[in-house]
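Hi team,

Filling in the usual template for the complex we talked about on Friday. All components are listed, including any nucleic acid strands or ligand strings, so the model treats them as one assembly.

SUBMITTER: L.P.
PURPOSE: interface mapping
COMPONENTS: two
RESIDUES: 445
SEQUENCES:
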Amino acid sequence: MTASANPLYRLVAALVLSVIVIVLDQRTPWAEPVRHVLAYLTAPIHYVAHLPVDSGQWLTEQAQSRSSLMEENQRLQRQSLILEQKVQRLAVLEAENVRLRELLNSSADLDANVLVAEIIGVDPDPNRQELVINKGTGSDVFRGQAVLDAQGLIGQVVDAGPLSSRVLLLTDASHAMSVQVNRNGVRAVLAGNGQTGLRLLYVPDTADIEEGDLLVSTGLGQRYPRGYPVGTVTSVRHQSGAPYADITALPTARIDRASHVLLVQPTQTPASPLTRGDADAR
Amino acid sequence: MRGDRPSGTGVIIVSLLIAALLEVVPLPEALNWVRPEWMLLVLVYWVLALPRRIGVLWGFGVGLYHDVLVGTTLGQWGLAFALGAYVMLAAYKRMRVFTSIQQCAVVFLLVGTVSLLAYMVQESVGRTLYPPYTILYASFTSALFWRPVCAVLRWVQLRFLVR
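RESULT (copied from the run log):
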């Protein structure tokens, strides 16, 4: 066979092709189609790898007794009652907020819907903090979409395949976003530390940030919606001689324990104060 | 050889897909450090067993698949696997007469080299956090798993008449 006679040519061809693909993937969107097609073949692997977890959950559900289910049902009903009561007040507050913003001539907040997805995989590479979820472009997931759980932001979609997507976590070392302190509005850049924590970058020593402060997203950068909880400050250390304070935080989202996540689907038009007014009157 | 018509491509692909499954199956965090490079082991086996059929281009293709599977830069593992397949193609005659220990040593060096190449690409796009010597853990376990993988695939090859 001639093919096996000169594998060196093939090696050179493969290496050149690899370098081209690497550069295209890093610098341009042109490698996306290749990734998209291959993702049809990789998504089933993730689904199958998640099967034991799924069937384990199913078994636990099947084995639960009637009384424990009833108990859980009652607990959830109570919880839902409390949440509904909170939402009632929220609608009024939101409408009021929109009216006040109107008075100030500033634009209204965007309204957002959410899509629920299940986590089906975790990145095996310790260098990267990523998740695989079971929704893809088929469910209108797009690159850059914000992902949260019930407690706060988790990260953003970095690669939307046809049947599954990859989510870059806040805690990844290559991730950074703009946040502000909920208490006083001080803004800072929040970056991941590559493990389970976060740190605030380039905060002057005199900034008013204390332990326990809640950090919320600012919406600057147009990636994350405004006003979602992101993290809680866990330690503030002032070192004499260092130009910046050393501040660490933990994500409010329970990233390592969540099994389902929410994808924020921004509506194209800002919610008009009129419809909010209607909701208020209802 | 009698019938030299190639057969069993499906079996090769299935074995690679099972290796892909083992690469992403959830493990405790600490074990991620020592997760063997299953796809590379399986690829190396088939290169050694069928050097006329499975070579550099298979390595490249399997590598691209691996890239999409684990979400690295497209071409990162493609590059590394192509080189790994080439090295094995150049050394397959020697590998076949090596003792188990010698084979494991070669696999250790090969997985280390291939992973280092992938690490360099990952480093260049800024997605590494830990120093490069950390890839040695996975290379070591890959070498440990080489003989079992070999035995299983040998049985598969004979059972399903892959040639």
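MY TAKE: Residues 269-282 of chain A have pLDDT under 50 and may be disordered. The domain at 114-266 of chain A is CATH 2.40.10.340 (Thrombin, subunit H).

Thanks, L.
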